[in-house]
Amino acid sequence: MAVVIESTLKSERLVKPLNPDASSFYLPVRSMKFSAKLQLANEIEMEGQILKVVGREEYLNTDDLADLQGATVRLYLNPAGCGPNDGIFFSRNAYRMLDAHSIMPDKYTIRLEILSIGENTVKEDMEIKQ
After folding, report:
1. Nearest Cα residue to 114 out of 66, 59, 74
2. Cβ distance 85 to 27 under 8 Å?
3. Residue 88: which of 2, 14, 12, 32 has the closest Cα?
4. Contacts (Cβ under 8 Å, ≥6 apart) of 65
């Protein structure tokens, strides 16, 4: 069972998780479909696996993006609070991996599978596209 999320990569430097390992790269996800549905009210650490990275424009280089498929990444949830979107922030190591492939915010869509949330494995199948 898994949660699969597909969203355009964004960057946020001010409103991010308190964990010092959280980078500024994140995937926005509707809170009604993710944190509210799974009853996640606080920041939490997650583990995920990159399924696919796709350039949003034809001119973007995608030759080496297959290298990212299957990469395990640490993630941090910043629940929406009063806004419409949760932020699923990548760890600093994941950020370095994306940066090494010249992945930029607003230019690439990432399809990601959430394997665990906190100490719990995911118990239901969900697919969220944003």
Report:
1. 74
2. no
3. 12
4. 52, 53, 54, 55, 101
Decide: residue 48, CB within 10 A, 0-12 exposed, 13-18 middle, 19+ buried. Answer: buried
Asked if residue 87 lies in contact with residue 26, where contact means CB atoms within 8 angstroms, the answer is: yes
Pairing of β 44-55 and β 126-129? unpaired
Tens place of pLDDT per residue across the chain (130 aa) = 578 999 999 998 888 888 999 999 999 999 988 888 888 888 999 999 999 998 888 777 677 788 899 999 999 999 877 678 999 999 999 999 999 988 999 999 999 999 888 877 676 777 888 7
Closest CA relative to residue 101, chosen from 47, 63, 51: 63
